[in-house]
Design brief:
binds D-allose, single chain, 8-stranded parallel β-sheet, 10 strands, binds zinc ion, two-stranded antiparallel sheet, cytoplasm, 46% helix, TIM Barrel, 12% strand, alpha/beta, manganese ion binding
Length: 384
């Protein structure tokens, strides 16, 4: 692919930031409060807009309900628009209430299931009101002990809840169904892997697609293989990008394993699927500044994408057809070894942006301003 085509595609790639990453977060041991953290969903949008202003490719922000509950969602959406961004995926929260102890949509208690489904339906409404086209579902449902509940009955309850929600979606809305190997449940999760998620999507219909969170697999899982298979089936809805060393670490994407990210992006580029996939971040910035961490993360995704776009597809296909293992592998490694920072600087220059968004942030005075202005009130986040 020539340089201009690479830049054209990079301009079209949109990377969605998660509202929760702008708030305080931590581990089960400690949530360190950071000065300047948003006190309202509106202030989260201000931060997301800043990330977009500096990177030019992060025009949407995902919401998490009820963390981002407001009285008037249309007003929130129009505020976002005024700041130059839009509302992205709507994420329901069916894991933080006491009555979800044994699950939400899979709970053995029909009243709890009803409550959870009502919340999913509420999120369909919020998506409509904010102009969002995507629902992003993650369920903490599962069990801790063999025999605790019927695995099969839980699948039936899940299918029932999803189909009621699916039926309420307008034709232009997509349901993204996320899976997770373990945590918070340790014996079995009701949606533990891409296959289970895919089966539910198949049953639901074409508006249901699988969401791959890069931190939700067993160590050593070949994630790009999953990506390739789902793309082939037309059911890869999108990503929750982040890095992990051990489990669901939620560190900055591209920090722990930039090569893994590149391999994922290579599958997307080679399937010409850049515009059909939602590139979303799902991260927690526990010890680093949140806004700059999100800027860095957006840049990391861009760098991996640029390298994937630079793969010499002809040389690769030729080597593959000839069974030339090392040349085929070499075609990928050459692209991965390319320093794409000058190309990205050129692209930013053409987009009227500072060549280095991290430096631009440091020089902007934004951090000092939010620290000075956001005094009083309650910082958003969990447990801070
Ligand atoms: C949880 O592990 C998942 O990654 C979800 O996407 C979750 O909704 C998100 O991390 C916000 O809590
Ligand atoms: Zn996730
Ligand atoms: Zn996760």
């Amino acid at each position: 692919m020539n340089r201009d085509e690479v830049k054209r595609l990079l301009r079209t790639q949109h990377i969605e930031t998660p509202s929760w990453a702008y708030g305080n977060s931590g581990t089960r041991f400690k949530v360190f409060a950071e000065p300047g953290v948003p006190r309202t969903p509106y202030e989260k949008i201000d931060d997301a807009a800043m990330v977009h202003r500096l990177t030019g490719v992060a025009p949407t922000v995902a919401l998490h309900i009820p963390w981002d509950r407001v009285d008037d969602y249309a007003d929130l959406a129009s505020y976002a628009k005024d700041q130059g961004v839009a509302i992205g995926a709507i994420n329901p929260n069916v894991f933080q209430d006491d009555d979800y102890k044994l699950g939400s949509v899979c709970s053995p208690d029909p009243k709890v299931r009803r409550k959870a489904v009502e919340h999913l339906l509420e999120c369909v409404g919020i998506a409509r009101e904010t102009g969002s086209k995507q629902l992003s579902f993650w369920f903490a449902d599962g069990t801790n002990y063999a025999g605790q509940d019927s695995i099969r009955a839980r699948q039936d309850r899940l299918a029932e809840a999803l189909s009621e929600t699916y039926a309420a979606m307008p034709a232009n809305m997509t349901m993204l169904l996320e899976y997770k190997l373990f945590e918070p449940a340790f014996y079995q999760m009701d949606l533990p892997d891409w296959g289970t998620s895919y089966m539910h999507c198949l049953q639901l219909g074409p508006q249901a697609k699988v969401l791959v969170d890069t931190g939700h697999h067993a160590p050593g899982t070949n994630i790009e293989m999953i990506v390739a298979v789902l793309l082939r089936a037309g059911r890869l809805g999108g990503f929750h990008f982040n890095s992990r060393y051990y489990a669901d670490d939620d560190l900055m994407v591209g920090a722990a394993d930039p090569f893994g990210l590149f391999r994922i992006m290579h599958e997307i580029v080679s399937a010409s699927a850049m515009d059909g996939v939602a590139f979303m971040l799902d991260q927690c910035h526990n010890i680093e500044g949140k806004v700059p961490a999100l800027i860095r993360s957006v840049m990391n995704v861009q760098e991996a994408t640029a390298k994937a776009l630079l793969v010499d597809a002809d040389a690769l296909t030729r080597a593959q057809a000839e069974g030339d293992v090392l040349s085929a592998h070499g075609a990928l490694m050459d692209a991965f070894a390319t320093d794409v920072r000058p190309l990205l600087a050129e692209l930013r220059d053409e987009m009227g942006l500072h060549l280095d968004p991290m430096q631009a942030y440091r020089e902007s005075g934004y951090q000092q301003r939010i620290v000075a202005e956001r005094v009083g009130g309650t910082a958003m986040g969990w447990g801070a």
